């Protein structure tokens, strides 16, 4: 049996190991940049970076410091590397400690105090708490995609262009020293609503904090490229595929994509100049289909998997997951909450879909990331709706995703090698089942996924060149 001295010594060693690890993580973290080919992100030392995001929108305002650590630790363990957060959900924003963000409601007047002692309310303010969260995230190897001010108060005229410039300057000055910042202009709004404000924020952040990437989070079923693709401050495109089913999409014209989020990717992938693209808000796990009516079915883990694999295989540089209870940090003391929320954030962080997102990143990063391209010519029968197959490949490998487990007819000869080794990859648990080796000659080979054909029986056909 260990005595108290031994236990104490072991505890000290474990603490030392943990401290060394977190300090090493913080040293290794560096600002992201766009790769030379314009298709994906990489770190300052040239290592490819696959964006796996979570929408922790109200992290700064709803969680205590202790709860913040619990949330960040959980997301780190699940493989997430980016957290999307609102800096100001509203111009009346205050955190859980009662600290207001602004003097009055003017974004041009952030409310700051001297000092940053958490135990002294006269020396700790809203921005000190934001600093704490940003630093903790960096310590854990997590990037924060920060929305300076949400779109609704801007649209209603509560944010003036002059004050927006002052506010963006304040943010740039305060946070440009942190390695883990990404700026996410906008916030669930069309770029055409208060265009002058969004341009002012984007230009100011880009000019005064050139070391961090800037994008725009748009309204549902729109994309940043609709307004800002050629803006110098927009480093990469983001779209919000939204929370509606095919039959709920009321979009007019040629952009009635319904649930086909891969179509947004295809549009942006072909734009010039080339910029990375990502789905920054697909349907959330645990939210009603259509968003507002709790009587509708709720989106499940299989749905968020589908959005992830569809968009990434179509050419996206990553994917952002979301959960209804987590995005609003819903607690037992909140009453009903919004959007028909049925869970609390502390339980919902362990929802099935949240744990499964890591397998998408692991698959993509298991092969040469830099050479990957979307390639639908691999598939003999693409299919429509939930039957649609999405294909991506490198020089010596190919992935094809089926949401329903239907047969996949593959046009061979599109990757290197005289033969290919085939396997099934399970998006639910990351396990691989070998199929066999096939001639890689012109012609078609049909692959039958495990299980019966139905929605949610999703699989990835993996093919690797055999020399």
UniProtKB/TrEMBL annotation:
Task: Keyword check for Signal, yes or no.
Answer: yes
Which Pfam family, giving just one, matches this sequence? Apiosidase
Q: Which positions carry the signal peptide feature in this UniProt record?
A: 1-24
Domain Putative collagen-binding: from-to ranges: 373-464
Domain named Apiosidase-like catalytic: which ranges?
A: 36-369
Which key words are in the record?
Signal
User: What is this protein called in UniProt?
Assistant: DUF4038 domain-containing protein
Q: Which organism is it from?
A: Chitinophaga pinensis (strain ATCC 43595 / DSM 2588 / LMG 13176 / NBRC 15968 / NCIMB 11800 / UQM 2034)
